[in-house]
């Protein structure tokens, strides 16, 4: 049986720092005007994508992983390894750090660690991210946190649309106001909040901090995530490699015209962030619209994409 692309219905979530761009830019049905996250390709119990059409319509991605491992090249493991999100940070996100696999296994009740990466879809002028810190030792990190010297501690980096950042576990980080991001990450929801600007939730309570776990998980001194970018041009497509790492490889496909493409990984996660096109294989065609998310399964036949569109693509 010919394998076919698996199109998924995302799950959108309210966040104290969220806005309305996920509806305005991508047409998603958002729960409120403070919607921060779209869990686009997710087999995590905190936000399960469901299949939109085809033989598996209505099943969750977790069900597919559990019952149809042949779609994913038969690779082993009890959880789907990756998670694709879109983030609309209308306000500054809280400053966090994620544990590595070892820490998560010890403290997080079955979660894996969480390394992630960000593709900046769009941002306001002079937008920033917080990426790393200045402390030279854990003792200095503790002192600076306890004294509230956030200006001295946090490294701020100016960003622009099209930038890419690899954020390994242990990196103190935050996306700041006015930024729209596609995030590729390990399939984990483990995060330790260090600082939240003293914000309160709708009940007037300050959000929990997890300082002891955060300080334990933080990489000190800070080390930038390694990126080895390269670009390949071929008929109808420019393919940019951002990272080929331990947990994921991430690419940008810029399609202009007709591109002939091959799915040669156990499976690929694809998100259309701009434009539209037609994906064709054998006798079948599927429309690709901005905001669509789909998986190219194992044994997917060679295919073409015709149109003007940009996709972020990842695989293990």
From TrEMBL:
Catalysed reaction equations from the record: D-mannose 6-phosphate = D-fructose 6-phosphate
User: What does the cofactor field's note say?
Assistant: Binds 1 zinc ion per subunit.
The source's superkingdom equals Bacteria
EC category name: isomerase
E.C. number, please?
5.3.1.8
Q: List, in alphabetical order, the Gene Ontology terms for molecular function in this entry.
A: mannose-6-phosphate isomerase activity; zinc ion binding
Q: Which residues form the Phosphomannose isomerase type I catalytic domain?
A: 7-106
* Annotated catalytic residues: 193
Record: residues binding Zn(2+): 98, 116, 173
Q: Which GO terms describe its biological process?
A: carbohydrate metabolic process
**Cofactor or coenzyme needed:** Zn(2+)
Its keywords, alphabetically, are: Isomerase, Metal-binding, Zinc
Q: Where is the Mannose-6-phosphate isomerase cupin domain?
A: 238-316
Q: Which family does it belong to?
A: Belongs to the mannose-6-phosphate isomerase type 1 family.
Name of the protein described by the UniProt record: Mannose-6-phosphate isomerase
């Amino acid at each position: 049986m010919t394998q076919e692309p698996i199109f998924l219905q995302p799950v959108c979530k309210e966040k104290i720092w969220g806005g309305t761009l996920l509806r305005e830019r991508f047409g998603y049905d958002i729960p409120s005007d403070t919607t921060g996250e779209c869990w686009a390709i997710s087999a995590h119990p905190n936000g399960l994508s469901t299949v939109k059409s085809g033989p598996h319509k209505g099943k969750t991605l977790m069900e597919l992983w559990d019952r149809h491992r042949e779609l994913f090249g038969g690779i082993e493991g009890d959880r789907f390894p990756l998670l694709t999100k879109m983030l609309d940070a209308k306000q500054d996100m809280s400053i966090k750090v994620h544990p590595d696999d070892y820490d998560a296994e010890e403290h997080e009740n079955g979660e894996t660690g969480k390394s992630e990466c960000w593709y900046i879809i769009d941002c306001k002028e002079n937008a920033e991210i917080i990426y790393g810190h200045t402390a030279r030792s854990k003792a200095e990190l503790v002192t600076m946190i306890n004294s509230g010297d956030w200006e001295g501690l946090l490294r701020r980096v100016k960003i622009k649309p099209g930038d890419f950042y690899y954020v390994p576990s242990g990196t103190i980080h935050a996306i700041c106001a006015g930024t729209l991001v596609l995030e590729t990450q390990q399939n984990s929801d483990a995060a330790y909040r260090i600082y939240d600007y003293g914000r309160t939730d709708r009940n007037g309570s300050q959000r929990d901090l997890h300082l002891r776990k955060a300080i334990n998980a933080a990489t000190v001194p800070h080390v930038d995530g390694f990126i080895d970018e390269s670009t390949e041009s071929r008929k109808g497509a420019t393919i940019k490699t951002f990272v080929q790492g331990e947990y994921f490889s991430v690419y940008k496909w810029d399609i202009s015209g007709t591109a002939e493409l091959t799915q040669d990984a156990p499976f690929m996660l694809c998100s259309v962030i701009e434009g539209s096109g037609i994906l064709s294989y054998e006798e079948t065609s599927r429309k690709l619209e901005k905001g669509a998310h789909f998986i190219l399964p194992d044994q997917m036949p060679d295919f073409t994409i015709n149109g003007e569109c940009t996709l972020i693509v990842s695989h293990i």
